[in-house]
Design goal:
Elements: H1 3-19, E1 21-25, H2 32-43, E2 54-57, H3 62-69, E3 75-79, H4 90-102, E4 107-111, H5 114-118, H6 122-134, E5 140-144, H7 147-150, H8 153-166, E6 170-172, H9 183-200, E7 205-209, H10 215-229, E8 239-243, H11 246-255
Parallel strand pairs: 1-2, 1-8, 2-3, 3-4, 4-5, 5-6, 6-7, 7-8
């Protein structure tokens, strides 16, 4: 393959990374102006690029994001219903998730009760996610596994299977508030998705997040998903990258392609 061909492939994959990006605005100190700026950037990330897949915000900012995105192609993603700890009881998760959906969230990123999984209480973790899934009314539920806390590939695979069985539309690596997601952790999650597909025929999405700051990391994750799941997964319907600073590095690399 020539260097020109390699450069073209790299550019195409970087453009794909932007297409699949959930631009995260999750700092607790985030103000309305920050969310508005992120939404405007998501709608127009750079010359010749499509809008990003979504903008991910905390519950108080859902209405701001929904107003700014105004039903366009960029989806409003609410990090709610247990974010970032995963221990929020159902009686509190329910009103928070329902309020986010009512205010305009099209997707919900919620945290699996990974402590329950580690303690052997898989049923509790399943029941909490299954309850959230029932409230989604056809909207997308992305379940965060918190892979760094789960530790082993075995635990990550178990948590992913619980989330998928409970109704997750996506499984996601981590919140980014603890250990960053590694390529190895993402692989364990992705292999569980592949197993689920072989068993059920259902395509569950994969979202990588937590420490994905460089274009080279995004390319590594894209390559891994393509190798484990195939090219069919590489669209915003079934693949996302959650990040706040990644877009800047992608744009810098695109300038060099």
């Amino acid at each position: 393959m020539s260097s020109a061909e390699e450069g073209g492939i790299t550019r195409d994959l970087l453009v794909l990374a932007v297409d699949c990006l959930d631009l995260a605005v999750l700092d607790p100190g985030t103000g309305e102006e920050d969310v508005v700026a992120a939404c405007r950037r998501a709608k127009d990330p750079g010359p010749g690029l499509h809008p990003t897949a979504g903008v991910c915000v905390l519950p108080p900012m859902v209405e701001v994001a929904a107003r700014e995105l105004d039903g366009g192609p960029v989806r409003v993603v609410a990090a709610t219903g247990g974010f970032p700890e995963g221990t929020m009881p159902l009686e509190r998760r329910q009103p928070e998730v329902k309020a986010a959906l009512r205010r305009g969230a099209e997707e919900v990123d919620t945290v699996l009760n990974w402590r329950a999984v580690l303690a052997g209480n898989e049923g509790q973790a399943f029941d909490e996610i299954a309850a959230v899934a029932k409230w989604m009314s056809g909207k997308t539920l992305k379940v965060i596994l918190e892979t760094g806390a789960l530790g082993s590939a075995e635990n990550i695979g178990k948590a992913a299977r619980i989330a998928m069985a409970a109704g997750a539309g996506f499984v996601k690596t981590c919140t980014g508030t603890r250990e960053p997601a590694t390529l190895e952790a993402a692989r364990a999650m992705t292999e569980a998705v592949a197993e689920h597909y072989r068993e059920t025929g259902k395509m569950v999405g994969v979202k990588v997040s937590g420490g994905v700051r460089e274009a080279s990391q995004a390319l590594d994750h894209i390559s891994q998903v393509m190798g484990v799941l195939g090219f069919a997964w590489l669209s915003p319907r079934t693949f996302r990258i959650g990040a706040s600073g990644l877009l800047d590095d992608i744009l810098a690399n695109l300038d060099g392609c």
